[in-house]
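Severity: low
Component: inverse-folding endpoint
Summary: output formatting inconsistent between runs
Steps to reproduce: submit the following structure tokens with default settings.
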């Protein structure tokens, strides 16, 4: 029996196989220009139909092979380290659409939010929203390309930053200089210097806490969906006494209100638990305090309770308040509060004991040492100090802002 054999087809397939074998051997080690010139050389050596055979064997586009043949014919050479001549390749979107960058910036600019003419008025400036607006204006661009352009133009994702503190007092800087001079004076005399402040109240129970903690994959700690007070076991009110000189702190975790009585009670506890041990010969105590709240400069109950403490422990108590709008400048905020928040991140504060233990376990590389305990006393709000009782306070006003910020209370 005779068979019709297409020898031309078999010959073509042999050539395809031969080129494919060569291509597989060099592909991973060659750059784009080398492959282009090599493919063109193979096509030329094959002769008629060479471009089609090389294209089938390698997948290299016919246009690239043709371009390679032209480069060989013209003897074209490129600069060192280049694989294409200058200007080759697809043009960037910015070159095709010269107004696209300015359009993106006009939308992304923070000043456009709230502009009645802006299509993004009162909306978030997500990349996809910007892309949608640009498409309505006749520009075709992906959200990822927008992100690339914004990054190149100096934009980045940022959260809000707390900076504006309200109206600044004219003597703000002078008050801080005064606090520094008082602190230096007390430290040189080996007298204790403390800073006091209340941390924000925390719900006690199975509630979500900011931050992340390691758990087995797929087994996160489960907490309540809602942070309702009715689901809580109570509120924890941490009040802190921080020793500036020794980098030590005492924290009383209150179960009641943050009042002046609670504040001074915490200072009293610190003194008996830590202060008199650290400073057995102390005759004076300097306190840095915020201008408002339970230890505010105008809080009569605060001064009345300090008088009782001064008489009880037999030492003078001087107080320097921070000027209005500068509470975040308190060293407690940065040296202690932030460290406590890091230490209990991602952990539900289920009981008062857990809160105390987590606060007490707060350590830093700079040697921060924290002790804590629960204050189970109930402190009433709205306590008024009569004029006659207030006049009994043995208070001495300092020459600089003695009527409001700086004063000393001596034992009676």
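Observed output (run 2 of 3):
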């Amino acid at each position: 029996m005779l068979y019709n054999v297409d020898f031309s087809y078999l010959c073509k397939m042999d050539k395809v196989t031969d080129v494919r074998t060569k291509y597989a051997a060099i592909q991973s080690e060659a750059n784009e220009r080398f492959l282009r010139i090599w493919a063109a050389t193979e096509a030329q050596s094959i002769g008629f139909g060479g471009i089609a055979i090389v294209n089938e064997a390698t997948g290299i586009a016919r246009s690239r092979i043709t371009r390679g043949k032209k480069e060989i014919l013209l003897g074209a050479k490129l600069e060192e380290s280049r694989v294409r001549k200058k200007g080759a390749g697809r043009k960037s979107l910015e070159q095709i659409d010269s107004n696209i960058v300015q359009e993106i910036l006009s939308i992304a600019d923070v000043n456009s939010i709230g502009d009645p003419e802006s299509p993004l008025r009162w909306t978030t400036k997500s990349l996809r929203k910007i892309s949608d607006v640009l498409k309505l204006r006749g520009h075709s661009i992906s959200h990822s390309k927008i992100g690339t352009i914004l990054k190149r133009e100096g934009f980045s994702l940022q959260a809000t930053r707390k900076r504006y503190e309200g109206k600044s007092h004219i003597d703000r800087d002078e008050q801080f200089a005064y606090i520094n001079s008082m602190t230096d004076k007390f430290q040189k005399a080996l007298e204790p210097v403390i800073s006091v402040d209340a941390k924000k109240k925390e719900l006690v129970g199975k509630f979500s806490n900011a931050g992340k903690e390691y758990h087995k994959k797929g087994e996160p700690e489960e907490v309540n969906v809602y942070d309702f007070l009715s689901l809580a076991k109570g509120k924890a009110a941490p009040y802190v006494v921080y020793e500036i000189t020794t980098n030590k702190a005492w924290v009383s975790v209150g179960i009641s209100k943050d009042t002046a009585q609670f504040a001074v009670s915490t200072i009293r506890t610190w003194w008996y638990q830590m202060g008199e041990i650290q400073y057995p010969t102390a005759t004076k105590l300097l306190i840095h305090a915020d201008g408002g709240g339970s230890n505010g400069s105008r809080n009569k109950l605060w001064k009345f309770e300090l008088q009782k403490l001064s008489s009880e422990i037999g030492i003078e108590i001087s107080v320097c308040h921070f000027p209005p709008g500068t509470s975040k400048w308190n060293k407690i905020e940065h040296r202690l509060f932030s460290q406590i928040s890091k230490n209990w991140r991602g952990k539900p504060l289920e009981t008062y004991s857990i809160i105390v233990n987590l606060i007490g376990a707060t350590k830093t590389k700079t040697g921060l040492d924290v002790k804590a305990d629960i204050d189970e006393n109930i402190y009433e709000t709205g306590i008024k100090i009569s004029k006659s009782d207030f006049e009994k306070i043995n208070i001495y006003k300092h020459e600089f802002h003695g009527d409001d910020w700086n004063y000393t209370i001596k034992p009676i």
